[in-house]
Amino acid sequence: PSAFLDVRDLRIHFPTDDGLVRAVDGISFTLERGRTLGIVGESGSGKSVTSLGILGLHHRGRARVSGEVWLDGEELISAPAERVRQLRGQRMAMIFQDPLTAMHPYFTVGAQIIEAYRVHHKVAKSVARKRAIDLLGRVGIPQPARRVDDYPHQFSGGMRQRAMIAMALVNNPELLIADEPTTALDVTVQAQILDLIRDLQEEFGSAVIMITHDLGVVAELADDILVMYGGKCVEEGTAQTIFRRPEHPYAWGLLGSMPRVDRSVRDRLIPIKGSPPSLINLPGGCAFHPRCPYQGRNGIPCRTEVPTLAEGSDHGVACHIPPSDRRRIFAEDIAPA
Ligand code: SF4
Ligand code: MG
C-alpha cells in the first residue's frame, strides 16, 4: 500500500448475549499525511469503533476483527498487541470527547504529559517537563509554567480539553484521531480548538481523522468526508462534493441539521425521522430504508438488496436511486438554485 494510512474492509463484530453486534461492517479508506478525513454519522453508526479499531483499542479478546489497517506500510490488525501499543502514543494518538477518559484524576496534568513523553523518549524529567510547559502554552493555556502542576479537576472543561490535546500531541503523532473533540464545549472554545488542531496539523504535517455527528464541524476542516450509517459507509468523497452536492438521502438529512446551510435550503430538507438502527438487528436491504422518504421509489429494491458504493470513483454513494435521478432530486427538491 502506498497511502500513509490504508484501511481495507475493516470489520469489527462483537458477540453478545443478544446476538452479534456488527459495529463496523466493511469500511475502507485511505488517508495521506497532512490531510484530514471527516467521519460523520449519528451516534451508534460505528464511527467511534472504527477509530478504536485503527488504534487497536477495541476489546481484542472479545471482538472479531477482520480486514487490514496499514500505517506507513505496516499492517496493524495482525501485528502483536505490544507493537500496536508502542505505535500508539509514538506515531498515533487520540483526542477523546471527554478528557477525563484520557486523564487520571490523581496525577497532575504535567506529570501525565511528562509520562506520556518519557515512555517513548529517553530524556531527563526536566527536559520532558520543559516540553510539557511548552505544549501547554501552545494549546493556549495561560501561565503554563504554573498550571503544569495543577490537577485535571482544577482546569475548566475547555482548558482540560486543551491539556488533553497537549498530551495527545506530545510525541508529534503522525496520525491524530479526534472523536467529537468539541461536542461538550461552548461555541467559542469549539472554534478555538478546531483552529488549534488545524494549526498543529500544518506544523507537523499529521494525518487527521475527525469524527463527528455534525457535518458543520468537518465541512471547513476536512479534505474528504466519509458518511457512516449502520456500520457501513453510505457516501464518501471530497468535502466539497459531500457538502455542496451530496447524493445519499441520509446525507441530505444530515445537511438539514447544519446551521451554516442557507435557511431556504434547510427549510426544504426532510429531517431524518426515527432513530439509528440497532447494530444487532440491522434492517435488511438498505439499512436506512425504514427512515428513507425515497425507499421503494420507482420499484427500487431498498428492502431486499444492500446497495454498494461504486468502486474506483472519487464519489461513492450506496443508494439504489440511479445517479442521474439522485442529482436531479438534489438539484430540484433539496437545494434548488
Ligand atoms: Fe433510500 Fe433506497 Fe437509497 Fe436506501 S437505497 S437510501 S432506502 S432510496
Ligand atoms: Mg461515539
TrEMBL record:
Membrane topology, record value: Peripheral membrane protein
Main location: membrane
Ranges where the ABC transporter domain occurs: 7-255
Pfam families: ABC_tran, oligo_HPY
Molecular function GO labels: ATP binding; ATP hydrolysis activity
Subcellular location: Cell membrane
Residues in the signal sequence: none
GO cellular component terms, A-Z: plasma membrane
GO biological process, one term: peptide transport
Keywords assigned: ATP-binding, Cell membrane, Membrane, Nucleotide-binding, Transport
Family statement: Belongs to the ABC transporter superfamily.
Name of this chain's protein: Peptide/nickel transport system ATP-binding protein
Organism for this UniProt entry: Micromonospora rhizosphaerae
Top-level taxonomy: Bacteria, Bacillati, Actinomycetota, Actinomycetes, Micromonosporales
